[in-house]
Structures are given as structure tokens and as C-alpha cells.
Amino acid sequence: MQSRSPKITIKMGGKRPEIAPLNVNGNHETLEKDQTTLEGPSVHSHSNHETLEKDQNALEGPSVPSHSDGKETDQNVLDGSLSEYSSEDEDKDNDKDKDKQIVLYDYSLNGTSEPVKTVKKHKSDKRVSFSRRPPEVGAFTVQCANCLKWRLIPDQEKYEVIREHITEQPFTCETTRQWNRDVSCDDPTDLEQDGTRIWAIDKPSIAQPPPGWKRLLRLRREGSSKFADVYYASPTGAKLRSLPDVVKYLKDHPEHAQGIRLERFSFQIPRPLKENYVKKRPKMAASTSPEYLEPSLAVPVQWAGPEKKLDVQLAEPLSWAGPMENNDGVPAYLKTPELDPVNRAAKKAKRYDINCL
DNA sequence: GCCACCGGTGGC
DNA sequence: GCCACCGGTGGC
């Protein structure tokens, strides 16, 4: 609805199969509110199927989100479709199975959201494996600083570059030319926020991982105590889940510690737009019987807002400088990122006594 | 036994 | 309330 500042998003739902966005019970309308968006209302998707475990990453995405509160200023947003499914659910809608397809999208298709592969879910497949897989990031989108439309980012690497520099180098539709796409602010948004997937706001100014390292974001299922976890995969394949882990790893592997700056590691996670995606810590107070609270009533004050400081930081787009377009395909790492001012871990990194700084 | 995933909490 | 961190464990 009204203007917001641009954001970046990632969508979940990718790699893991997700249900085709044919609304199984889709009420798109309601989403237009400011409710938080999406949940694929109840689009469940079977998260998993052995055969699907291919490799595709999906893309699809949201579009201009409509958070009414104008507060979400520019940020990175992650959006994803929920791929979750329980066995009970499955039982309930077995009859609908025939309508469901798992759809994989492919990143390698630059920027389009065309499904490249659809796999029919087979009822008889081991149903255990359907359940309990958390959703995955399915696509990355960034909001144009000018028109506020969402543009798909073709792959994680590009997304990370954009995210790293978003504050100094706002993203616009023109940026997509870097991957030979030709869209302008006059073109429709790439992604609609239609409630079939989950969106989350990503943090800006997160440094790209050091060369040879990969930053992994693992989403948790709805109702978990946290939204996601970040891991860094080292050049040797080790997965590190905290800065102390990284420090230890570097000490143990001095050969990989050369030139590595701890500031490049950020374990910050995105924030889901869906209000109650993450289970809140139970209040101590005596009052009511939490059990019977209607979920939808739970948190009336939507944006009372704690985390607003973030938004502020992202907020104003400065002038466009054209980030990584040294189009020799060389991404813009190598510029040391500004430290994200709210990255406590990064600041804290300085306290670690390690010589690889 | 490993590891992906989840819960919990101290400290800010 | 959020973040950083780490312990526990179910499922492979």
C-alpha cells in the first residue's frame, strides 16, 4: 500500500520441493492487509521426496509486499514458501493429492520464475520423509529503490553482493542488467506476494563469505524457537555455527586462516514477516491460559516494534553507483564491507584474539 | 556415530 | 525482545 523503502528478499521453498502455487486454500485477499503476509496459508507442501532432492533452487517470489506499516524500510527480505507438511495433513487431504504437484524452479534460468521441473507427488512414497522438513529459501528478491517492485535475483552469489552493498548502492530495476535482463520500473513486479510462501526480511550489509567459504541459511519450521540458523561451510566442508567455532577452526587450520577477516562472518538471521512464525518465549506472568488463546489473536500489536532500528539503517537509498558491474564477471568482493552496525558478532569478533585479522 | 535440527538462555 | 551461542537428540 503505501510507500516503503526497498528491501531485499529471499524466498524459501526452493531447493526443497514445494507445492505449486495453486491455492489449495488460498485466500489471497486477506493478505493484502498488513497481516503479515504469508503463510502459505495453508498451502502445505510436502517437503520432501527423495527424488526431488535434486539441486535446483527455486525461484519465485513475492511482489510488493504490503505491509502497511510504513516502517519496514529498506531491507533485505527473505521470502519463501512454506514447505511443510505433516503426516496428518497428508491423511486429510489425500484426496486432493492429485491436484498437488511439487514444483522446482531453477536458478540457472536467469531471472525467470518458470518452473523447470514438476514432479508429481506420489502417495505411496514413504510418507515419513514428507514430514518435518523445514522450508528452504527458494528465491532471492530485492526491491527496487525507485518503483518498489520486486526483482528476482538469479542466484545467491549475486544476492549476497547486492545485500552487502545495498546501503551504499541501492538496488534498482536497472541493476538487473548486470545479468542481462532488461526490465524497467514500468514492467510488472517479478513476484507477487500472494500468500503462497513465506517472506522474511534479511539483514543488510552482511559481508560475502570469504572466498572458498559458503554462508548457509537454514530455516526452521514454523513454531520453532528461532526462525533460522546460519552456518558457514569452510573450504574443507566443515560447518561452523558460531564465531567461536570459526575462530577455533581458523586456529586449527592456519593454512586457511590467511587473510580471513572475522568481520566477514555474520550469523545474523532474517526476520520472518509472518507474525507468529517463531514461537514466542512464554511469559512468566500468571494471567491467562495460553493454551486456549486463539492464535490469531495472539499479538495484536503488530509493529510495536523492537527491531526497528534495523529498518532505519537500511532506510535511505543513496545514490546509485553501480556495484558489481565491473562486468568482467568479477563480483565485488574484495571490497571490505562496511560493518553492519548492528552486527554484534562482528564487533565482538574483534575481541577474539586471533592473528588472522 | 554423525549431523541436521531444535530448544533454551545469558547477556545485552 | 533479540542475538549469539551451545547442548540435546532423533533419525539416518
Automatic annotation (TrEMBL):
The UniProt record lists the keyword Metal-binding: yes
Compositional bias segments (type: Basic and acidic residues): 47-57
Pfam families linked to this entry: MBD, zf-CW
Annotated localization: Nucleus
Region (Disordered): 1-100
Keywords, ordered alphabetically: DNA-binding, Metal-binding, Nucleus, Transcription, Transcription regulation, Zinc, Zinc-finger
Location, primary (coarse class): nucleus
SMART domains according to UniProt: MBD
Superkingdom field: Eukaryota
Cellular component, GO, one term: nucleus
Coiled coil: none
SUPFAM superfamilies: DNA-binding domain
Annotated ranges, domain CW-type: 134-193
Family matches, as InterPro entries: DNA-bd_dom_sf, Methyl_CpG_DNA-bd, Znf_CW
Domain (MBD): residue spans on this chain: 199-272
UniProt-recorded Gene Ontology molecular function terms: DNA binding; zinc ion binding
CDD domains: MeCP2_MBD
Protein name from the UniProt record: Uncharacterized protein
